Amino acid sequence: MNIKNVMMMAAMMPAFALAETNSNSAPASVEANDTTIRVNDQNIVIKQDGEQTSVKIYKMNGNEMNEMTKISETQFVDGQEVEKVFVTSPFIPQTLSKRKRSLESHYPTFFFGCSQLPGSRGSMGGNNEMHSRDSKSWEWGITLTSLCFRLSNEMALTSSLSIGQVHHHFKDNYVLSTENGVSAMTPIEGEMLKKSYISYNVLRLPIMLEWQKRIGCHDAFLALGPSVEYRWHEHSRYFIGKHKHTETGDINLNPIGVNLEARAGYSGVMLYARAGITPLLNKTKAPECYPMTIGLGFRL
Fold first, then answer.
1. pLDDT per residue over 159-194, tens digit each?
2. What is the dihedral of CA 177, 183, 189, 193, to 10 degrees?
3. CA–CA separation, 107 and 261 (whole Å)
4. Three-state DSSP class for residue 3
5. pTM above 0.70?
6. Is 32 helix (H, G, I), strand (E, B) or coil?
């Protein structure tokens, strides 16, 4: 039952429905400020209490106008609908409740995170072989679209499509160079590098199991699941002063990556973490490293 339909029905029935307050035939539970619409042998009682609207339907027992039985009740609170159906069979519970709260995915519209390149799967911190400078490494991106498939009142299977860019910075005058098809960290002699990094674009598709619960006026949520990403447009670059140099456009980047992701947040703010399950680079032709990111997302 939709509250708009109830109000429309009340407005379109003046010819055969009588609206009254504190009717003699209304059930004892009806208060003086309730609105009662009598249709044939049924009374529809509408009650407004702050942000909550209650719609109850009573049916007359036989020919006794003073004996009414409640057969249905629907409440509307903060855009959520709770419907109760009342039955009289002794073999069925007296109240069957059905909560109809729409669920939605909670992916960030915009996200920004700090990236790392640990040398093993699931680890954190610097990578001596890569001479990584994690404090200067970062990623950013936007979510293009998202989907939500309801599993229960508080659980959903969600997915999204996001696009972004990742930068991994290096220290100690090292750059990632490729020679004869093999990539390695190489020092630049006789020059002082302002910065050195690799960068690539990414298109990411996560599939996550999400728990969500309405607290106050907004949702609290927690999600976990894998993601698959496509990487392209990679470069290894460095700066000497204000001059940018491209060392190589081939860093033996694995074009497909698999990650494990987690998100937790409330309303439009969330924390996220992502750990690479597969290596970022082809480890037979480049140093072994796995992307790791912790960041903050905002949902509009």
1. 999 999 999 999 989 999 999 999 999 999 989 999
2. 50
3. 12
4. helix
5. no
6. coil
Distance CA 135, CA 158 (A): 32
- The whole-angstrom distance between residue 95's C-alpha and the CA centroid of its chain comes to 33
Q: What is the CB neighbour count within 10 angstroms for residue 204?
A: 20
User: What distance in Å separates the CA atoms of residue 263 and residue 106, rounded to the nearest whole number?
Assistant: 9
Cβ–Cβ < 8 Å for 280, 117: yes
Which pLDDT tens digit goes with each residue over 194-234? Answer: 999 999 999 999 999 999 999 999 999 999 999 999 999 99
138 vs 157, 214, 242, 277, 296, CA distance in Å?
28, 32, 21, 19, 12
In single-letter form, the type of residue at position 86 comes to F
C-alpha dihedral over 77, 78, 80, 86, to 10 degrees? 0
User: Is the separation of the CB atoms in 73 and 87 below 8 Å?
Assistant: no
Q: Which of 214, 207, 205, 221 is nearest to 149 (CA)?
A: 207
Please tell me the distance from the alpha carbon of residue 25 to that of residue 60, in angstroms, as a whole number. Answer: 9
Alpha helix locations (H) across the chain?
3-11
Residue type, 90: P
Element (H, E) at 221: strand 218-240
CA distance 114 to 118: 13
- 99 phi and psi, to 5 degrees? -95, 125
